[in-house]
Structure to design on (610 residues):
DNA sequence: CCCCCCCC
């Protein structure tokens, strides 16, 4: 007999109430379930090759087929008659598929294997467009003793996924996506994708400690939390990346406010909870932790609070900072890293707690982060570790080795996009203003500086006085006085040093389509502009005019989006309007065109001005 | 039963 084709995707339709005639499905498992009566009932795990459904039952008149071994694993069947029915509480119930007439098309021995890589229909249905048909009118309510809410039953041996001899019988595990508070006889086989540190709490309702972890299998993900005794019992056993069998946890609705996982429920460990490490050779079917690595430059285009997986070199590492939260009065420790990657972008990543304390960034390791959150402030976006985030230092993956090679060969010297740079002025968006309009509108004449952005081209960068020798102390950029004896004196620090650091103070002319202006760049932007460190620029200007000339002329006639600070300043008795470059970034044409289209609409009155 | 991750 040729192997029959499954009616791909039909389970999602059926479980949405559609009456599809004679669907062809594969049986992936069949188990006797407990009922509160002596009546024998069989539960089926059915697949259509795309989705599976573990909420299927065999009508008792068909039990004989199972006794004869006709419905073994992998059997392909045609459902000649079936119905669906809601069980469980009003509004929160599950739809159960009840099979009343069935024809075997291919025996399990003939088929031998699972067809396709089915996922749970509940998960998949959210992204698929499933036509919503009227519920099947023929569905009769399932009697309680026939439903799965058989929690009072003592005889575990016949349950699907039973607990045997104190170890977890994993021959047929439940998909995470099928877990619900209405059914607690299950074993899941799941990979731990993240684990929090142990945290203590103390409030009006009591005190205690806990840790939580995120679990994942092919069907979905769920958060699990272990309190107090369970926290102590399981904390060391649980390792991120390992696969375990879990059973006997309590399910409850997830508070979406606190969890970004795609699951309506979350689990709490109980005194009965069992956790057992799964051998590596038995891990099949449990996906590896997936990193959707995005280039750092792309973070600029993402929304506040979005999750980011990325990889970069820790180019700079900040000091450990300790502070007390004003809202909670709790003490926090944090450390900020600067990550760079081959998109020539840099972003700040904040580590917390022990991860911040123990971090050693001086070796400039490769940092891989999963599930970090975007925090937006004044137009800059930075990343922060939070619940569910994973940090890996020097992970052994090709991307990491590639980055290492890139960075060790000077790759990180040409950072052009500062994702975390703030535009200042306290506003989240910077107005687009042309250079001419900035003059006409007298920007910068108020008490506070004005900030605006424009697209402009670099005309010429002045080499004269492009750098100065500054105090070598961190956080002091004051110009030093060369005392002529190998000592450099800083008036602010009131000290002399044998060394100094170069700082940039670059004047250049930029132009947009309306006008041109001289603007000033300080070191951070200047390094970005010239694609060399202040040290290299200073060295070249002092010792190597040809190299300096190339550095300065290379960027002529290149266009950027400039974010500018505009302020009137007094020079003696003269007031001059001064423009300082806050940041410059390559032109994001998608964003820039949006701005142009908006202006066109406003100008012409055609279309809404958004 | 937690659910805090500040500030600019």
């Amino acid at each position: 007999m040729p192997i029959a084709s499954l009616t791909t995707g039909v389970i999602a339709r059926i479980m949405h109430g559609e009456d599809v005639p004679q669907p062809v499905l594969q049986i992936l498992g069949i188990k006797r379930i407990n009922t509160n009566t002596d009546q024998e009932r069989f539960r089926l795990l059915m697949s259509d090759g795309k989705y599976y459904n573990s909420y299927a039952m065999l009508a008792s008149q068909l039990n004989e087929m199972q006794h004869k071994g006709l419905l073994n694993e992998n059997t392909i069947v045609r459902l000649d008659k079936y119905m669906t029915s809601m069980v469980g509480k009003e509004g929160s119930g599950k739809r159960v598929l009840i099979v009343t007439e069935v024809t075997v098309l291919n025996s399990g021995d003939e088929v031998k294997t699972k067809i396709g890589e089915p996922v749970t229909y509940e998960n998949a249905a959210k992204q698929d467009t499933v036509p919503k048909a009227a519920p099947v009118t023929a569905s009769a309510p399932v009697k309680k003793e026939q439903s799965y809410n058989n929690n009072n039953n003592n005889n575990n041996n016949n349950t699907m996924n039973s607990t045997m001899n104190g170890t977890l019988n994993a021959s047929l595990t439940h998909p995470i996506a099928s877990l619900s508070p209405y059914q607690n006889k299950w074993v899941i086989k799941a990979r731990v994708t993240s684990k929090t540190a142990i945290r203590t709490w103390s409030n009006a309702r009591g005190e205690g400690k806990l840790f939580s972890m995120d679990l994942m299998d092919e069907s979905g993900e769920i958060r699990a939390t272990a309190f107090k005794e369970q926290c102590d019992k399981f904390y060391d056993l649980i390792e991120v990346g390992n696969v375990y069998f879990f059973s006997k946890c309590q399910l409850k609705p997830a508070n979406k406010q606190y969890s970004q996982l795609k699951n309506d429920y979350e689990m709490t460990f109980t005194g009965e909870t069992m956790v057992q490490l799964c051998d590596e050779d038995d891990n099949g079917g449990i996906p590896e932790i997936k990193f959707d690595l995005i280039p750092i430059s792309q973070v600029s285009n993402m929304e506040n609070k979005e999750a980011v997986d990325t990889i970069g070199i820790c180019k700079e590492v900040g000091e450990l900072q300790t502070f007390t939260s004003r809202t909670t009065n709790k003490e926090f420790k944090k450390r900020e890293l600067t990550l760079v990657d081959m998109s020539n972008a840099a972003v700040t990543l904040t580590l917390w707690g022990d991860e911040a304390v123990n971090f050693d960034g001086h070796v400039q390791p490769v940092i891989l982060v999963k599930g970090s959150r975007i925090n937006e402030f004044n137009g800059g976006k930075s990343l922060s570790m939070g619940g569910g985030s994973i940090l890996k230092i020097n992970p052994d993956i090709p991307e990491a080795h590639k980055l290492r090679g890139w960075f060790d060969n000077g790759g990180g010297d040409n950072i052009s996009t500062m994702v975390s740079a703030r535009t200042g002025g306290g506003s989240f968006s910077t107005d687009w203003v042309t250079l001419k309009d900035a003059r006409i509108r007298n920007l910068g004449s108020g008490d506070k500086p004005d900030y605006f952005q424009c697209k402009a081209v670099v005309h010429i960068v002045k080499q004269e006085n492009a750098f100065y020798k500054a105090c070598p102390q961190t956080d002091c950029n004051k110009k030093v006085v060369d005392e002529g004896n190998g000592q450099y004196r800083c008036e602010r620090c009131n000290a002399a040093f044998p060394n100094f650091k170069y700082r940039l103070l670059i004047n250049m002319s930029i132009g947009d389509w309306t006008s041109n202006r001289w603007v000033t760049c300080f070191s951070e932007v200047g390094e970005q502009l010239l694609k060399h460190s202040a040290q290299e620029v200073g060295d070249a200007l002092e010792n190597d005019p040809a190299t300096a000339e190339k550095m300065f002329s290379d960027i002529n006639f290149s266009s950027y989006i400039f974010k500018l600070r505009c302020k009137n300043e007094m020079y003696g008795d003269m007031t001059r309007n001064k423009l300082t470059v806050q940041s410059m970034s390559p032109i994001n044409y998608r964003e820039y065109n949006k701005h142009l289209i908006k202006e066109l609409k406003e100008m012409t009155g055609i279309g809404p001005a958004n």
